[in-house]
Amino acid sequence: MNVASQYLPLVAHHEAGHAVAAIVLHRQTFDDDRELPAFSSVSIYPDVGDGECGGVVEGAGFYSAQGFTSKRKPIFEDDMDRCLERDDAIREIVACLAGPFAESAFEGYLDPRDMAMNASDGNEGSSDYADAKRIYGELRFLMPRRPDWGRIEDCTARLVLDHWSAIEALAAHLLVKHDLQFDEALTIVAPHLPPMPAATPPERHPQPA
């Protein structure tokens, strides 16, 4: 087994962490998993050509605004628009961190503080952490007071631990079939997730005779 193959289970859990987090967070906004999928595909690559392995979750994203500065603040239509952008930004941070946090859990770090410390030590400067930190910096333009970074890390740790069976199931499938479309991934993880609440039927008013 080459060095890259030894790290493949870690990569599989990393990408599964991103994917499961995306599904869980997506459900906070939308009540239809398949009509509005949380991502398009999740993949791992046993060898990216330089002796290392890698992976990616394609098409996932809650928040895209960037480049805010103290001189150019974003313009919102109203407070609701600002709140939606803020909530999407926080979801995006958690989704970014869920991959490194799932790595930590796979390595045996199950206390949220230990998990956060290990994830930070091993991934600080990575694209996941760089994206998370950039968005966290932009939060100051989206809300009067940003949530503490430690609270966001704790939220991420809780999401990963609470949905660990879903992450493990998806990682196991990724190690066999390296590329999964969203519908395949959802079929794998759905039995491990809480059922979605039933849609409330529209209220029926009696018709006049």
From TrEMBL:
Family annotation (Gene3D superfamilies): Peptidase M41
InterPro entries attached to this UniProt entry: Peptidase_M41-like
One example of a Gene Ontology biological process annotation: proteolysis
Protein name (record): Peptidase M41 domain-containing protein
Originating species: Mesorhizobium mediterraneum
Domain of life: Bacteria
A single GO molecular function term of this UniProt record: ATP-dependent peptidase activity
